[in-house]
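Researcher: Good morning. I'm working through a list of sequences from a screen, and I'd like to move beyond sequence-only analysis. For each chain I'm collecting a predicted structure so we can compare shapes side by side. This is the next one on the list. No need for commentary yet; just the structure.
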Amino acid sequence: MKFKNILLAALVTFATVSCTDNFDELEKDPVALSANPAGQLSFTQLCMSGDGYYQWRANLIYSGGFVQHYAGAWNVTEFGSKFKKNDDYATALWRNGYANELKSIVDVLEKTSGKADMVNMNAVAKIMKVMIAQRITDLYGDVPYSEAGLGFSKGIVTPKYDKQQDIYNMFFKELEEAFVQLNANGGAIKGDLFYNGDVSKWKKLANTIRLRLAMRISEVSAAEAEKQAKAAFQNGVFESNLDNCIMKHLDYPFNDTPGALDFRGNGLSYALIGNENGDHFSSLMINFLKNNGDPRLTMLATPKTGGAAGGAPLPGEDLYIGNTPGLFQWEMPGGSNAISGIQPYLKLRTTPFLHVSYSESQLLLAEAAFRGWVTGSAADYYKKGVEAGIRQLEIYGAAAPTAAAINTYLAAKPLVAGSEKEQIATQLWVTYLFNSIEAYSNWRRTGFPQLLPITNPDSETNGVTPKRLYYPNDEMQKNGANYTEALSRMGGTNDWLNKVWWDVN
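Model: Good morning. Structure tokens for this chain:
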């Protein structure tokens, strides 16, 4: 870890963690925090949602634009909706994910390995490593994993690019190991900002991530997907919204310079604030919620303040209008005031970030049950997943809907025979609203929801949604042999229309 990142980790952790046993010693010698697994765990967890640099680029602009969660802002429309290449946007997660997150958590793994009083810390680091690398491989394809983060400890500065299938096999192995390791006598989990050291919550998180990954490979390796989904289910996934993996952020200013980032605030909020109210939910999202009578409509969006013809909205005029993908907000009829806004509590630096949810687990179980892989009713899992997806918005400050409103919606929109995959995937798309990276991956796997066509003549792909993000071009100079070998397995060119391994849709 570079010195600037060591020092930043120290400063960040001092502001957020007060349960580290040797905190007083660390305060006297901030750089000593670089050798402390608790501090590095806190730092890594903060980075995963507090990194406004890649949350803005990889999550909002590209993933959010690709899957039509958002539209209207200049950068989301110009690059995320029109599918134009921008090297800074495309490589942001790669650069910061490896430099800050994976490097730190691999260091935690090495420092806790074989230590009886750090068995649980080691298990948590394994889960965190999978969480970090899953986003990277799902966005890019074949990537360094088995040799990543070992530059300092092992001298590996040109790590090989593992095949994505091999990476997933390592994921499943590590999640199983972590689940087995976690125990009441395995030592304290220090510096944990997700679950405050709760072993039972971490065990359920390991299994829920395992379920996510099992379903991710369902179209390319059904037998392995079934095996892993069954194991996750039997071991125990999330049981309620109380199990959700949430990062609670603090109110700290944002600097968009990679070397001077402050990760304590919500990185996606930094992006929404940075786009100066240019971001809106897409017409696809707003219309889905509105047309189905979904209680989440008013929990997520604000009514428009202007009419389509100018001035105030006319009596009877629809107050909830989304921004058409491919159009800038000022190109919408009536301009930006004539489209719905995003609720203010969703754009605060203190807004929590939801990494993994009970809603997601139930919707994935609905699909697994539909496929015959787990016991239980697909319709029941679906109902629980949708309800949890509505109620999880309360963590952001949304007013709780009445039980009657939820029940009316669930009764009117049950899982229907013949459309199960589309309904489940579409509800996951809504549940992943603030985690567009996951939504983009699940859309590539399933093909749902059906996105609105992009007909802009200046689209660089002729309206074809990219299938991955492309590697940083300087990898040719830094890690040329491994980079070239990876490209030979992924279509031969560093192109974002080449698919990753699990994408056979």
